[in-house]
Amino acid sequence: MNIAVCIKQTPDTTTRIQVADGGGEIVDDGIQWIISPYDEFAIEEALKLTEANGGEVTIVSMGPARVEKTIREALAMGAQKAIRIDCESIPNDPGVTAKVLAEVLRGRGFDLIFTGRQAIDGDQAQVPGRLAHLLDWACVSVVIDLAIDGDKGTALREVEGGSERVHFTMPAVIGANRHLNEPRYRNMRGIMKAKRIPIEVVQVDAPAPQLEITSYSYPPQKGERKLFENGASDVAEVVRLLREEAQVI
Amino acid sequence: MILIISDIQEGKLRSVNAEVYTAAVALGKETGQPVATVLLGASGLKELAATAGNYGVEKAIVVEDAGLAPFSPDAYAAAIAHVIRETGASVVLMGATFTGKDVMPRVAQHLDVALVQDVINVRDEGGLVFTRPMYAGKVHADVRVQTSPALATIRPKSYKPAEQAADVAVEPMSVSVPAAKVQVVAYEGSSNGKLDVTEADIIVSGGRGMQGADKWGMLEELADLLGAATGCSRPVSDDGWRPHEEHIGQTGKTVSPDLYIACGISGAIQHVAGVSSSKFIVAVNKDPEAPIFKVADYGIVGDVFDVVPVITEEIRKVKG
Lengths: 249, 320
Ligand SMILES: Cc1cc2nc3c(=O)[nH]c(=O)nc-3n(C[C@H](O)[C@H](O)[C@H](O)COP(=O)(O)OP(=O)(O)OC[C@H]3O[C@@H](n4cnc5c(N)ncnc54)[C@H](O)[C@@H]3O)c2cc1C
Ligand SMILES: Nc1ncnc2c1ncn2[C@@H]1O[C@H](COP(=O)(O)O)[C@@H](O)[C@H]1O
Hints:
The complex is a heterodimer. Chain A is α/β, with parallel strands linked by helices. Chain A has helices spanning about 35-55, 65-75, 95-105, 125-135, 190-195, 235-245, and strands at about 5, 10, 35, 55-60, 80-85, 110-115, 140-150, 150-160, 160-170, 170-175, 200-205, 210-215, 225-230. The N and C termini of chain A lie far apart (about 55 Å). In chain A, about 50% of the residues are buried. Helix content of chain B is about 30%, strand content about 30%. The N and C termini of chain B lie far apart (about 45 Å). Chains A and B meet through helix 3, helix 4, strand 7, strand 8 and strand 9 of A and helix 3, helix 4, strand 7, strand 9 and strand 10 of B. Strand 13 (about 225-230) of chain A pairs parallel with strand 18 of chain B. The structure holds flavin-adenine dinucleotide and adenosine monophosphate. Adenosine monophosphate binds next to helix 1, strand 4, helix 3, strand 6 and helix 4 of chain A.
């Protein structure tokens, strides 16, 4: 079973995202880059499947040279191969990413492609569905449990208040969610091994974006904050304010 | 035409539909366009169409086809793309539910157009501008699309439903439904009809400061009184104190209730990211320096075990 895992390099979750003066862009100096957390569940699931069934895991990431550090972190978990799709900056139109990924991954003999349910910077949740459509494959995303049996699969996906049991045909694109598994730690051996794996760099002509982010801003500041320091004895006043001032209860 | 894809779950319209109808009708007025909704399924949809009329939607296109049961995101996407082409809709909206966010990227790729997910505001400024949170809510982005139709999913709780009666004209349409590659065979509700955090007006949420699964009765009592959902921080769901559907934050659910009550939650940046679009935040924490107080509209410094029962008692009093 040969599996591709698409990973996106994103800012660490503790990063305070800064909007550049004028609001035109996000400042990316000083950001600590990581594998988008959902993509780690994708890598883990791919490794588990190839360990059980044989085959190789290929890490794929679209981005400038700086994403190779993140690709190496993915390789250190145990993947065998890697592809970086070169571009000046990571697209913020998921349609562009999906088209480029489809072009690069098509015809390479993969049985399964994993992605994260969404990348934690753009929070788009679009690449898996679009990619599957372009390949004419099945797609199940936000997956918390997965079983594959020949040319068929079963998955559980998270939905409001519970989960859906889904049957699908192979090949498929699977968008991983938290709770699918427990991603393994990278050990020294894995890190050393990853250093020696060549990263194939692919050049493609990316299609034009179909959307434009015209400005970024911080969420609107709310009214004055009030701190009540006397615990239970302030509660009656807080409840009164919630009812009369905030009018939320 | 502005077309809304109605989100039907287990034969019922999800609560988000009323919000999306409201957003669409307002946008229709602003841009001078008629508003219609499409309901898709195997049968029994005509009865649901009247609901759309309660929010000012004037037309309901009903697509009933045996191939649309059980639910299949790819078969639905193909059917929706067909309806969009047939109607020539210029704007297509759906609720940003798990279903909406799963189906719409496929529709967008059918049509090879842009899609804006999780929109909290849409308006006409010489072309449509969609505002959506990014980085789990740490920033907001204004987005314009260059393709037509413009597709967007609307985040639950972003629009207040506004009732305004209209006569809905129901119009059947038949479409060709392709064979499904993916089928939903069962819904396994683990919280038994309880309100999901993404759909709740009020959320009562607990963190590690609650000290254990057995202490949640207190939060559930308050939640029941308020008609609220219960939520939690990540370590609470990691430790199995609460089901994972309740996990809120950057790697859990992003919520926008009217009122978020955080009990024994420190307010780590990953948690706060997921609640920052709440309209009002109340925090109870015994540490006056806890970061949650930087984002709480009202902060109460105190022990949750002293404070929460009094909140319940006081609310019971005012609610009579
Ligand atoms: C990649 C990544 C992603 C993450 N994603 C998320 C996410 O999506 N959501 C999330 O929540 N976290 C997330 N986290 C974890 C986050 O960093 C924090 O560790 C977590 O939010 C802390 O949870 P907590 O506030 O419940 O617990 P703690 O940090 O332990 O805080 C407990 C709080 O309770 C207070 N307290 C204790 N006892 C009492 C009492 N008797 N009365 C009143 N107050 C009391 C304490 O003062 C303290 O402030 C993520 C972390 C990483 C690394
Ligand atoms: N630049 C990229 N390179 C490789 N994979 C990506 C890239 N962007 C997104 N993905 C994959 O698509 C998933 C969903 O991303 P998105 O639709 O942008 O939220 C991510 O979790 C990744 O698996």
